[in-house]
Amino acid sequence: MKLSLGFSPCPNDTFIFDALIHKKIDTEGLDFEVFFDDVETLNQKVFRNEPDISKLSFHAFAYATKNYALLDSGSALGYGVGPLLISSSDRFTADRVREDSKNLTVGIPGKYTTANFLLSLAFPDLLNKREMLFSDIESSLLAGSIDLGLIIHENRFTYEQKGLVKIIDLGDFWEKETGEPIPLGGIVINRRIDPGVQATVNRLIRKSIEFAFENPSSAIAFIKEHAQAMEEEVMYKHIQLYVNDFSLSLAGKGKSAVETLFNKARESGVIPDVDVPLFFNE
Fold first, then answer.
1. Digit-coded pLDDT (tens) for 30-45
2. CATH number corresponding to 2-78+181-267
3. Is 84-178 assigned to CATH 3.40.50.300?
4. Which of 98, 128, 200, 276 has a CA positioned 20 to 30 A from the CA of residue 225?
5. Exactly one of 22, 153, 226, 238 is catalytic; which is it?
6. What CA–CA distance (Å, rounded) separates 67 from 276?
7. Is 153 in the active site?
């Protein structure tokens, strides 16, 4: 049986899926047709009900629950992993951003990213948003075409080298508000797929992560191939930050964090009510 599988070319995803798609583990008769996209493009493909399995922003998941269920393994979730709001100078503080929200333009990595949800939660009046590829936000700030930038992924490790300045860590904001780890993105599976196959896919993703943890050098060539110009040190930091015990299993604390995110988003009017179970039935 062949299933379509979409994830980003970022090191955390290629680290997670290397053993699975290259059959370094027993895939139990399943084959995977893989495609790579940035997270907002993945979100949009899920909205169109295209892939069988995909990485997805947790914010976007709220609009896809009719057709997709969240797997227990493969998520990017944790403490100290949140998006950052940055600028090109230190003249901006969080208070100043709140005071001058209506006059500021912010570059965001996509409307349906969890990063944008957190930004809306922390700065509800910051409405002049410009959607762009996450990797273009730093250069847009340096060019002066936006006032603020919302950065994710490896840009957490590169913005200071370019002379850019952090205003607020939105993950830290979330943790102080809720006491929960921040759910960034998860792996969803189409509900049209047989429940037994869903359980097999979940098990295989966990095995793939376990293989990667036990054989950390095994995926290096694959990771480097897709990380492109990323420095090796940044690549390793990226993996260490975003792949952790929550990636193996959301378990109790992880599921609680996802539910808290959904509850906060509903209370804020950011997402509609969800009337189906979020998690796949193991």
1. 999 999 999 889 999 9
2. 3.40.190.10
3. no
4. 200
5. 153
6. 10
7. yes
